Amino acid sequence: MGKILIIDDEKAIRNALREILEYESFEITEAEDGPTALKITEKETFDIIFCDVKMPRMDGIEVLAKLKEKGIETPVIIITGHGNVDTAVDALKKGAYDFLQKPLDLNRILVTVRNASNQQALQKETKTLRKKINKSAGSNIVGESAAIGEIKKMIDTVAPTEARVLITGGNGSGKELVARQLHEKSERASMPFIEVNCAAIPTELIESELFGHEKGAFTSAIKTRQGKFELADGGTLFLDEIGDMSLAAQAKVLRALQESKITRVGGDKDFKVNVRVFAATNKDLRKEIEAGNFREDLFHRLSVIVMRVPSLSERKEDIPLLADHFLNLIAEEYGQPKKEISAAAIKALQELKWTGNVREFRNVIERLVILSGKSIDDKLVKAYAVPNFG
Predict the structure, then answer these.
(1) Quick one: which of 120, 138, 212, 343 is 20 to 30 A from 105 by CA?
(2) d(Cα 227, Cα 76) in Å, to the nearest integer?
C-alpha cells in the first residue's frame, strides 16, 4: 500500500507499530533517533512518517522542522505521552499532520493512517492536474536574446489578427509554444486550442482525425465522431508537422480553409467551421513542393505570416534563463527544493551543441537534477549532459 518511516527510540513502540502496519500491507522502515531518520529521508521517500516527541540527540519537533526545511511534504504523525499534549499541539501548528497519544490505540492508528494516505493521494492528484493545466495553458517564452525578442514582437503584432501563421524551425525549438502564445494573445483565447501532430497519425487515419467520421464509414467506425476542425470551432487549430500530411488530406484541408466547411469521412453533409489555423513544420516546404510532396496552393493559404523559431544554438545567451526556468519547473514537479547551478556549469552548457534544441536542453537539466547532489557543477555537466548509449 505504501512506505512508512517509524522514528522512535523505544523498540517496543517501533515493534508494535510495525506489526500493525505490516498487517495492513505497508512497507516499514525504522529509525531509533532523528539524525538517523533524516539520513534515511535523503535516500528514500515515504508516504507517512511516525515520529516520537521525546528522543535523545534530537526531539520530534526538531525532526519535523528539519523535514520541512528539506521540502519534504510527507504527512508526519507525532507520537506523544500524556504529559506532552501541548507539545503535540504545537507540532500541529508547525506542520504535523496529527498526533497519537501513548499507549497507542489500534483503531486510532488505522484511522489516522487512512486519512493521511487519502490526503497524500489528493495532493499527488492535485500536482498531476496542475502539471496538466500548466502544460495545456502554455507558458511565457523564455529568453531575452535578439532572436527571441523578434519572435515576441511578431507574436504581439500578429496574434490579435485573424491571419494564418506558418511556424518553421527545428525539432524541439518551441514551435508549439509560439502557436500557444499566438492563441492566448488572440481574440480567440477563451475558445479551444486544438493540436494535431500530423506526423504521429497514420496516413489512413489522418482524414478521420481532422474531419471526423460517420458511423459505419469504415470497419472500426462504430459511432459518429467529430474531428479536430469541429472541436476547434470558434478557436484555433494547430497542425504540427504539416509537412508529413498526405496529399489527399492536404486537399481536404485546403477546401476547409477556402470554404470554411468540412465533410466527415463517410458523410455527405457539410459542416460550417470557424477556425483559425496555425501550422508548423521542420521541413523546407518549398523543397517539398518541388518534390511533389506538398501542395503549393495549400502552402500559400497557410503562409500568410511565416515565423521562424531560432534554434537554441542561435541564442545561447538565453541558456542561463532557460536553465533557471527549467530548474524551477522540475523542482515543482518533483516536490523538491530547487537545485542551484554554478556559473561554470552554465558555461559548459553553452559550449554544447543542442541539436534537439530546447526540448533536449530541458531533458538534460532534468537528468542533471536527478544525478546531482545539492547543486549542479561543470563536472556533472561534462559527465552527464551527453548520454552514453554505449
Answers:
(1) 120
(2) 49
